[in-house]
Amino acid sequence: MIEEAGLMWSVAESVNVHESIKTAGPERDSYIEKYIKTLSNLSRAGIKTVCYNFMPVLDWTRRSLEFRLSNAAIALRFDAIALAAFDLFILRRDGAQLYYTESQQHSAKIYYDRADSSERNVLAKTILAGLPGTDEVFSLPEFKCQLDNYKGIDRAGLKQHLYYFLRAVVPVAEALEIKMCIHPDDPPISILGLPRIVCNEADLNEIVNACPSPSNGFTLCTGSLCADPQNDIPDIIKRLGKHIHFLHLRNVKREADGSFYEADHLRESTDMYAVMKAVVAEQMRRFVEGRVDLATPMRPDHGHKLADDEHYDTYPGYALIGRLKGLAELRGLELGIRRNLLAD
User: Which of 161, 183, 243, 265 does the annotation list as catalytic?
Assistant: First the structure.
């Protein structure tokens, strides 16, 4: 049906990595073998790009899935104070106080006290949502058990577990001509005491060098990386562009306390013009080098609920009209930049 519609399925996302692999549990080699089998099946189906992430327990984390903007559009929002309130007063995680300053704890207490029971339940449900594409939500006892699995695993330890996975999987992916592309952590900070290891350029550089291969690269997600103001995304593209196998293009509006909301694709904290110009320049470099992977798969990541979108029950961030708006803007931006560069 896809082919009959004139489309081609070229990217699988996300092929989830089992928690046993992330924690180096006794079954990790068995789950790695299953992952390799999945890659083989995808290759036979013609899928040659595989996106995955290595975020412990939770995937991308937000406070609100229905954040109303001034123009009446609905966006996703991460609220650093709300997360602290959940951690300190709902989850009541052991040692949570060590992760927050006195000012953050004070603000979190005010937030918690002002919220009624319904608002607290919504907060917990939103944060404890399962993997993308599912409606599963952890209960508090289940989530605490998941946290216990990571006791004693810090950033260095989790990185070694990732590298173990890569050294087993990447040679097979290379033989299958599959591009593996890890997705940055979202947001790129420690969440609820869990380590996160794909947060910045240094992390990405370590990952591609842990198992050097044309098949070991990353997904450039501008929204995830932009949540940290220290990440200069155009510079990351210039220095590590040859390892980018997939593009997630979206924008966020950062706030002073670490919070952010997802903004229009072409404005706010990410200079999307500079990002797109760096992407096009990378494609031109690949052409000069004789590489065959010139056209990097791209999608307008997430999107606002606009107009009729509100009448449909779509997965958070994947409203039709909002994403089509972003796609049109990004394609127009790319066309203008490409023609200007060619004219020069």
Answer: 183
